[in-house]
Amino acid sequence: MDGFIREFLRELNFGQGVALSFSSINDQYLALARTVRHYLMARWLGTLRRQFETQAKGVAYLSAEYLLGRQLGNALLATGLTDIVEEGLAKCGIDLATLRAQEVEPGLGNGGLGRLAACFIDSLATMSVPCVGYGIRYEYGIFRQTFEDGRQVEQPDNWLALGSPWEFPHPEAAQIVNFAGHTETYEEDGTVRSRWIPGWSVQAIPYNYMVPGYQNGRVNTLRLWSAVATNAFDLRIFNSGDYAEAVRAQTFAENISKVLYPEDSTPQGKELRLQQQYFFVSASIHDFIDNVLPADFDLTHLPDRVIFQLNDTHPVIGVPELMRVLVDEKDFDWDDAWEITKKCFAYTCHTLLPEALEVWSVDLLGRLLPRHLEIIYRINDEFLDEVRERFGDDELRIRRMSIIAEHPERSVRMAYLATVAGSKVNGVAELHSQLLRDKVLPDFDEFYPGKFINVTNGVTPRRFIRLANPALSELITDALGVGWLTDLERLRELEPYAEDEEFKERFRAVKAHNKRRLSRVLVDRDGTSVDDDHLLDVMVKRLHEYKRQTLKLLHIVTLYDRITSGEVKPADIVPRTFIFGAKAAPGYRMAKEIIHLINAVGSVVNADPAVEGRLKVLFPPNYNVTLAEKVIPAADLSEQISLAGKEASGTGNMKFALNGALTIGTDDGANIEIRELVGDDNFFLFGLLEPEVEALYAKGYVPSSFYESDEGLHRAIDMIARGTFSGGDRGVFDGLVSNLLYDDRFMALADYRAYIDAQDEVDKAYLDEDRWTRSAILNVARTGFFSSDRSMRNYIDRIWHTPPSF
Ligand code: 26W
């Protein structure tokens, strides 16, 4: 510990340049972060050296998003230094928790897909599998959400402002990334070749981040790229003597990594977004070839050294990029290059919504990446030839399967390109993978037997149990001993404890403790609080109509109606606190109206004395990983209420179950697998099944008929329409109400009655404290399957073939 104190003070004095007595909390935080990273450094260097020596095959995870969460706690956990650091700091009069709270989380992702990438790289490091994560170092991450009069207002997330002690810039390892221009053909040794004469270029500067394995001596690398203007740019403009133009050009280049696109699920087709995608993918592929492989490496063997995993379609432009490198730069012939490329990529799809599948207009792609467009056309021609060979001139089928769509404008279907090039295509939960094969890409499934597989998502237990829920972790360790954190199926051994009175008592105490902890956090950040004796009912996820935050609202409004109409006395209802956390894409109008309505309902319900404090609606702004780590361990009830067939997997659902919340959920995504594991008695299932949803769409869904025939629903919607939550103003939620009554794409009204009935069951179950605790313990005991270590094992065995390497 003395060693730690010495190092910490050294960092504070010589790194930060301040004396302890004059140091700010931020000084102390930065000095601590740098001290801790020193402890990881020898492991990092060792990992890199061994990796180079063994030349083992590794994963290059290509993801436009990494939603990492705070780093300090995880680094302390990985090194096993938490106690020493806590004591050491205390001797200096510093509280570790205060320094941890100083860290601004890097919000370099939107939601599930970005957080999944972060969980996966954690697991790979912990399992000693070689992996480098590649992505973008956005200067501004996901916006900071604030509310003004209940409406969402976005603020820039300047996460780098107070310093970023976890990153290591490597300007000397910059890559040049080219754009635009034109292509030309030329003859060499009697063969016709192509080359690309780019119009402009930028530099990609890598920033390395440590990805420490859990107490195993391994540290993998996350490499995020930042864009700056090239020297050529500077020089040309310097020569032109136009200073203002020089600065403008600089800004133009740097725009590429300036900001994360906050759209989740509806791609905008913006040029800058395609620039971002090509920017990081091109830099990453070149980086791997130049810096990870030895200088004399024969790229014929590239598939023995790397698999590029495509996290959704965002990095799919890497396929024509690798082809271009092989054919144009490394002189491979086309067929050989294609054989290599097909073995080097695999593709994960994260959605089912047709509008979320990325397409790029041929016009835009051809302007920005002319050579890549030619390559895509050739890939498509050869692919369609194969299809013809198999199926004859079935023009309808050809048109359906073409990578190039003709309508509404000629464009490239990135998911098709990924499917044609990928050695495997996977969905992220059983149902999702099935629907992917049956509904989204059925022609491809028929054409490529065995290519489509399922790998159900998972979450890292290091962050989402051990760090987020130390009290539960301690209880588990007391029961099972150590080792469960890297072998999560061992949670099964908790099953007998579901009948153990003392254990149940302690389990309840853990939940109560976590509720109080959450309450303190909410008091500090928003001046709100959670009542100890309330059922804590939580819905946290991006705001989207398919996730159906409105259905949750209709439940709350119904409970409010039951009280205000005198149907029930407040004292007779189970007291509940509802917590919402959700960001809406800034351009998604309906989502923003739903946020407004949640806040409006909260204001009225929370202030109405008739409620007698039995219902409380909280919507802490700016839900992020840091808040998730406090909210999830405190929850009693997990809301997973998407319309069946729409949520690819969900991963929040897994985090809640692992922390002992019961789920109320539809038969969708990974909910299905959760329910199968925990058992029907320990899960509140409701709502239409996916085939029923399809049947209802087919016969013609009339939402207003549900409104007409269900009194409770009628009353709830009328309350909103009448202005109960908008000071009597009927106009405010007009759009939302008519959307529900006359469109309701995601069938909230059709599932309303089933949902309300299921919630009434929840109340009954909660009143039986013993039964509830038993169910909660069984949720923990039976969901070890959802460790991302298990997901990674599946990818390794079935897609990557990258064994651990020590
Ligand atoms: C702007 C284009 C775009 C399109 C889709 C941006 C982001 C997306 C993602 C696919 C959205 C996303 O995060 N999907 C979620 O991925 C999780 C991890 O697999 C799943 O658990 C969620 O169900 C899925 O919605």
From TrEMBL:
Stored PROSITE patterns: PHOSPHORYLASE (PS00102)
Cofactor(s), by name: pyridoxal 5'-phosphate
Enzyme Commission designation: 2.4.1.1
Pfam hit, one: Phosphorylase
InterPro entries according to UniProt: Glycg_phsphrylas, Glyco_trans_35, Pyridoxal_P_attach_site
Reactions mediated catalytically: [(1->4)-alpha-D-glucosyl](n) + phosphate = [(1->4)-alpha-D-glucosyl](n-1) + alpha-D-glucose 1-phosphate
Keywords, alphabetical: Carbohydrate metabolism, Glycosyltransferase, Pyridoxal phosphate, Transferase
Signal peptide: none
Top-level taxonomic group: Bacteria
Enzyme class: transferase
Function per UniProt: Phosphorylase is an important allosteric enzyme in carbohydrate metabolism. Enzymes from different sources differ in their regulatory mechanisms and in their natural substrates. However, all known phosphorylases share catalytic and structural properties.
Family designation: Belongs to the glycogen phosphorylase family.
Name recorded for this polypeptide: Alpha-1,4 glucan phosphorylase
